[in-house]
Design brief:
With about 190 residues, the chain is α+β, with helices and mostly antiparallel strands. It has a single domain, classed as Ribonuclease Z/Hydroxyacylglutathione hydrolase-like (Metallo-beta-lactamase, Chain A). It contains 3 helices and 12 strands. The strands form 2 sheets. It has a 7-stranded mixed β-sheet. It has a 5-stranded mixed β-sheet with strand order 8-9-10-11-12, with no helix packed on it. The chain is globular, with a radius of gyration of 15 Å.
């Protein structure tokens, strides 16, 4: 049964719109839902301040971040995880923290807050996950299945093109808005690479 719009409480801000190059940067986002303060993909950036300053402008200090999600283990999405020393770190197979916690738990269906869940979406790498938000405006999916709105149609780093396209179909079946790994958010359309 679909959830009622009143139960869709997550909201998000883009801290940094990424780029696939020539100066590679990861799109980094902030999600808030109840007590959860979540940063997604704090990877390569022009500087650490280019992540921390927009966060501060939103009234959030780095030590107030409760969770960090990394979509996959490539350095361009993980490099600045340690900026958030009190956060739990979520990846495809575990939850860690800087106090030494390591809980092995698959990401599929992992609930971070009432309106934020993780799903397994292999594609760009075999270990990719996507973060699914239920907001008042619809479902938003943060994912590296697309680098930008334009794709690429075939990810040159994908170890399994069949898995990539299956994961894209899964996300397109639920997303009203996609936040890709290295670009601005976009609304899926008929021209979105499948």
């Amino acid at each position: 049964m679909p959830d009622a719009p009143a139960s869709r409480t997550a909201r998000f801000d883009i801290l940094l719109i990424g780029s696939p190059g020539p100066a590679t940067a990861s799109t980094c986002s902030l999600v808030r839902d109840g007590a959860a303060v979540i940063v997604i993909d704090p990877g390569l950036a022009p500087s650490q301040q280019s992540l921390l300053d927009p966060l501060a402008e939103l009234g959030i200090a780095a030590d107030q971040v409760t969770d960090v999600v990394i979509s996959h283990h490539h350095p361009d999405h993980t490099l600045n995880v340690a900026l958030f020393p009190k956060a739990r770190v979520h990846d495809h197979w575990a939850i860690y923290d800087f106090g030494g916690r390591w809980d092995s738990v698959d990401c599929e269906g992992r609930v971070l807050s009432p309106s934020v869940t993780l799903i397994r979406t292999p594609g760009h790498s075999a270990e990719d996950l996507s973060t699914v938000l239920r907001t008042a405006e619809g479902v938003v999916v943060f994912t590296h299945l697309w680098w930008t709105e334009a794709g690429p149609a075939e990810d040159p780093y994908a170890p399994d093109a069949v898995a990539l396209h299956a994961s894209r179909a899964r996300v397109l079946g639920m997303a009203d808005l996609v936040v890709p790994g290295h670009g601005a958010p976009f609304r899926p359309s008929g021209s979105t690479p499948r």
